[in-house]
Amino acid sequence: MPEHVLMSEIEIITDGGRRRRWPATEKLRIVEETLEDGASISVVARRNGVAPNLLYRWRRLMLDGGAVAVKGIAHRTES
Description:
Layout: H1 24-34, H2 41-48, H3 52-65, H4 67-71
Helix pairs in contact: 1-3
């Protein structure tokens, strides 16, 4: 066996295949944390157990469409 062998550790995290449902109030609270001065979206996501890409999406939706967008309610009226 060579003297210099690299060993690495791999951790596999599974969630059981179910998606977590986030109440609108919880989404808003988490998004509001990202709006504080110096807040890192990645740190806020990790602290709350949210995938960073999902938090970026919630944040963009809220900034573009307000709290209604984060709730996932879309009402369109066509003229």
